Amino acid sequence: MSSDLEAAGERSREDFQLAQLGPRVAQNWDRSLTAGGHSDCVSSGRGGGSEAARKRIAEALSDLAPGLGDVVLRLCCFHEGIESTERRMGLSARSGKIVLRTALFRLKKHYDSGSGNWYPLIDKVRDSERTPNRLVASGA
């Protein structure tokens, strides 16, 4: 698979994570932070970066053909195995890669036709690659 297609899948996963659309695995603090009720921000879905990411992932998935959005969600966002996805979606064995490639090609086309920004949304610099925030004495 080409790096362009992998980047498209990675971009959709980043938007999915930033939109906080995955299953909740921790306590939901929304009610306690708003004194027992939902604030306008929580109930209407208006929010900073997560709302923009929700919009981006919704647009990207709606731009795909029926069924291809499900493949992208299962494989790229939920990290489900390809064999499991084939079984759950009723695809024949070993056809998942072809369907995934088609979905990623359409996803890449969507991102290319949009803003064309392919920069990572989530910083992937490992801690070992970060430079410490301290003054470095120069040799002069």
Task: Provide an overview of this structure.
With 140 residues, this protein is mainly alpha-helical. Helices cover 54% and strands 0% of the residues. It has seven helices and no strands. The termini are far apart. α1 packs across α5 and α1 packs across α7. It is globular and about 40 Å long.
Structure at a glance:
With 140 residues, the protein is mainly α. It is 54% helix and 0% strand.
Strand content: under 5%
* Helix-strand string: HHHHHHH
Mean pLDDT: 75
- Give the biggest sheet: none
Helicity range: 40-55%
Helix and strand composition category: mainly alpha
Question: What is the count of β-strands?
Answer: 0
Q: What distance separates the N and C termini? A: 49 Å
Radius of gyration: 19 Å
Outline, from the CA principal axes?
A: globular
Topology, pairings included?
Elements: H1 3-18, H2 30-33, H3 40-44, H4 49-62, H5 68-77, H6 82-89, H7 96-113
Features of the shown structure:
mainly alpha, disordered C terminus
